[in-house]
Design brief:
There is one protein chain. This protein has 616 residues and is of the alpha/beta class. Helix content is 37%, strand content 13%. The protein contains 22 helices and 16 strands.
Length: 616
């Protein structure tokens, strides 16, 4: 499939152009240094031929005879496979059979495919609310480091990346950009088939939180929801990752949401390998990942994030990913783009549908066509297919002979309750807002929050661990309006765990008619839902951030309309308060956490991506 180089259907929105230009100006020097570095690393011949003979021999010692001949004497391209396969993640289990598919596809075009290395991939669903979750965000940077190790042999002409879930894709992108002279193609495995509806699952969770059903009923519901290979079907970080890889041009068109272990899925996997081999420096269609992922690509990703109500985690991940390519994003860029981006989808937790319903209603081809038609995407952005996003308004199909083909995506939504046009959106602006005030700077996801709850003003109830909040709920202590302030949950404190297990009890309180909000320097992820939550508060409490000054009973105002996050106390009193400190040693050992002390010491602020890397 070749890219359509036609112009976007509408002139570029002025705000999108302004934000892109200011990112480019802000990033100019560091971006140029990055481009110079990857240009110096590029070679228009197989890099392995510059290695010593012993080095080369080690590199193909275990290869099949035909592959060995290509690597030893031929000019065929070598494709490195970086895989996050494990049996623990439902989304990654299908990757077990991908290497053989990729090897066969590479041989079919005269190349070789080798597993270059594996990267860790933890399941946030398993670790949610547990000690292991305190390693989750740091695993992103471990994955980036592992990717660098995999590609450090300098024997590859391109790379494909097998990863789907929360920290895995961002980590792989950071690692790929470190080797940005190589073409990079990301290959998904797709979502699991639909099981128990997300609405029913959420209902059972709340009933369990209220003590109205037992653990057996909860486990039965969860098992019917998460029941087979593929990503979880709600629109959390994993599926937001897939949207981003497609709208940023790193997937083949329409690849994101095809279910695992199907003929179409296998055909897309093989085609991805062959496309990666077609765009190496050995040929005439060289598309290095570091050049392709430019300011336009990242702005397209942010617009897609807003248009689909995607995961709040990407206010961290996109910043860190962009920095790896010499591009400086800020939360203000997100906020300004949200003001002009309509919300086109309703997928749980922002609605009742799952990603399979979204895909059936028109999916990514429909979203990209609508955004192009509204002038909200850079239609001339470069992709793995070349310049232009028009190719991404098409969807893949299998022809009668079994070959892979693309056809125009649907021009009309298949379900207006799930997917709408830019002219008739669910809401006029995107689902993320940046909050500023005397507590600090934070983000809030409003796409799933009822409009009457976009402003909450109530007394603070302060907690230093999510278990404390859950215990207070179970003890029946939370009976009045409140803003739950959960602090010392930032990256330097304890790795910034997701706090999704707080949503059922807070949702119960809200359903009882109370005004409820959450303010935290921790994370919630794309699974955050109907409770207004100001998250990623920065500076974090352990850094002496103002969130550490809040006291029980202070009146806190979370205002997603005005974009403010305030404690309503006299300015002089607030300035005179000393931030509290706590003993965090219990979160610094056990379940491997002692090994991550260097990460906690080196990690930057949430607004800078909460990364251990300094890409200045």
């Amino acid at each position: 499939m070749s890219a359509d180089t036609s112009s976007p259907a509408a002139p570029l929105n002025a705000r999108v152009g302004e934000v892109t230009e200011r990112i480019a100006q802000r990033s100019r020097d560091q971006r140029q240094r990055y481009l110079d570095r990857i240009a110096a690393a590029a070679a228009h011949k197989p890099r392995r031929q510059a290695l010593g003979c012993a080095n080369q021999a080690h590199g193909f010692a275990a290869c099949a005879p035909g592959d060995k001949a290509v690597l030893r004497e031929g000019q065929g391209a070598s494709l490195g496979i970086v895989t996050a396969y494990n049996d623990m993640l439902s989304a990654h289990q299908p990757y077990e059979r991908y290497p053989e598919l990729l090897r066969g596809a590479a041989r079919g075009v005269g190349g070789v495919a080798l597993v270059a290395g594996g990267v860790p991939a933890m399941c946030d669903g398993v670790t949610q609310g547990e000690a292991g979750m305190e390693l989750s965000l740091f695993s992103r940077d471990v994955i980036a480091l592992s990717t660098a190790v995999a590609l450090s042999h300098q024997t590859f002409d391109a790379a494909v990346f097998l990863g789907i879930c929360d920290k895995i894709v961002p980590g792989l992108v950071i690692g790929a950009l470190s080797f940005g002279h190589l073409p990079a193609v990301f290959i998904p495995s797709g979502p699991m088939t639909s099981g128990l509806s997300n609405t029913e699952k959420s209902k059972i969770r709340q009933l369990f939180a209220e003590g109205k059903v037992g653990r057996d009923a909860l486990l039965e519901a969860e098992s019917k929801s998460y029941h087979g290979p593929g990503t979880c079907t709600f629109y959390g970080t994993a599926n937001t990752n897939q949207m981003l890889m497609e709208i940023m041009g790193l997937h083949l068109p329409g690849a994101s949401f095809v279910t695992p272990d199907t003929p179409l899925r296998d055909a897309l996997t093989k085609a991805a390998a062959q496309r990666a081999l077609a765009i190496t420096a050995l040929g005439n269609d060289y598309i290095p990942a570091g050049r392709m992922l430019d300011e336009k690509a990242f702005v397209n990703g942010i617009v897609g994030l807003h248009a689909t109500g995607g995961s709040t985690n990407h206010t961290l991940h996109l910043v860190a990913m962009a920095a790896a390519g010499g591009i400086a994003l800020t939360w203000q860029d997100f906020a300004d783009l949200a003001e002009v981006t309509p919300l086109l989808t309703r997928v749980y937790p922002n609605g009742t549908a799952d990603v399979n319903h979204f895909h059936a209603a028109g999916g990514m081809a429909f979203v990209i066509r609508e955004l192009l038609g509204a002038g909200l995407l850079h239609g001339d952005a470069e992709t793995i297919l070349g310049r232009g996003l028009e190719a991404y308004t098409k969807e893949p199909v299998l022809a009668e002979d079994g070959s892979l083909a693309w056809r125009d995506g649907p021009a009309v939504t298949g379900d207006a309750k799930v997917l709408r046009t830019a002219a008739d959106p669910f809401q006029a602006t995107g689902g993320l807002k940046v909050l500023d005030g005397n507590i600090g700077r934070a983000v809030i996801k409003t796409s799933a929050v009822a409009p009457e709850r976009h402003v909450i003003e109530a007394p603070a109830r302060v907690f230093h661990a999510q278990e404390e909040l859950q215990a207070a709920f179970k003890a029946g202590e939370l009976t009045s309006d409140m803003v739950a302030v959960l602090r010392f949950q930032g990256p330097k404190a304890n790795g910034m765990p997701e706090l999704h297990k707080l949503m059922p009890p807070l949702g119960v309180l809200q359903d009882r008619g109370l005004k409820v909000a959450l303010v935290t320097d921790g994370r919630l992820s794309g699974a955050s839902g109907k409770v207004p939550s100001a998250i990623h508060v920065t500076p974090e409490a352990v850094d002496g951030g103002a969130i550490a000054k809040v006291r029980d009973g202070d009146i806190v105002r979370v205002d997603a309309v005005a974009g403010t996050l305030e404690v309503l106390v006299p300015e002089a009193e607030w300035a005179a308060r000393t931030p509290v400190t706590v003993d965090l040693s219990a979160s610094h050992s056990g379940v491997g956490r002692e090994l991550f002390a260097p990460f906690r010491n080196a990690v930057g602020q949430a607004e800078k991506g909460a990364s251990i890397f300094a890409f200045a």
